[in-house]
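Dear colleague,

Thank you for sharing your sequence with our group. We've completed the structure prediction you requested, and as agreed, I am returning the results in plain text so they can be pasted directly into your records. Please verify that the sequence below matches your submission; if there's any discrepancy, let me know and we will rerun it promptly.
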Amino acid sequence: MQIDQQKCVACGNCIPVCPMGAIAIDTGLNRAVVNTNECVECYACFRGMSMEKLNPTLVRGIRRLLKIFRLRFDPEPDVCPTSAIIPDELSWPRVVRRAFSDPIVTHESTGVHGRGTEEVKTNDVTHRVGLGEAGYVIEFGRPTVGVWFRDIEKMTRALAGIGIEFEPRNPVTHMMIDRKTGKLRDDILNEKILSAIVEFKTAVENVPVVLRRVDEVSKTLDTVVSVGVSTRCDVEGNSALDGILAEEGFSYVRGKTNLGLGHA
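Please find the predicted structure tokens below.
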């Protein structure tokens, strides 16, 4: 994303809209500028603001005049008064930023928008996780933090070393050149995104080993990490995970149940 320097009037309305804090006023230029290293191409600024087409020269003149009298002319807070926010023509590999950060973009690899995976919400019909198996969701990044693919790769390679099975219907898995080692494409490693989800499964008895490895690696990453573990309950509604998680020091609450209403 770019700010058209000819149109910007430095009103600053776009600054709080950016979930990555990538927009700031350059006091030397007296214009808003985008830190392209931090911008994840989520389009929140472009889509989240109304675009008016006031004359930039006129707006700047009015603002300068009112400043003399210690008054201000500011547009409504959700408005870019001069339509100065301009999307870039994205090419590979930068386009992966938008694919993983813009919630309305559909991932080509999975056909799912957002972060590109239905996770285990549809397990009743997709059978991702079977009896005796544990399914994992590791989420990287948050607004204002984001995550580099190079940090995601540190985790996927560490987990691959303990014999996990990556979920094939996941956009991060599609970025791997070798699923046995968890190696991602080299050309995306220096791309930053808002967040991503890595999914995989193991036998239930391997849950302690996996959780300890996730904890160990997460401490070396320049982002935030959260992990979810799930399994199928038996016919009596019991979960094999309950005792394992308690022994590992995790408390849990059965606060959400997904019921499959469709059919495979």
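Summary note from our side: The chain has a mean pLDDT of 92.

Kind regards,
the structure core
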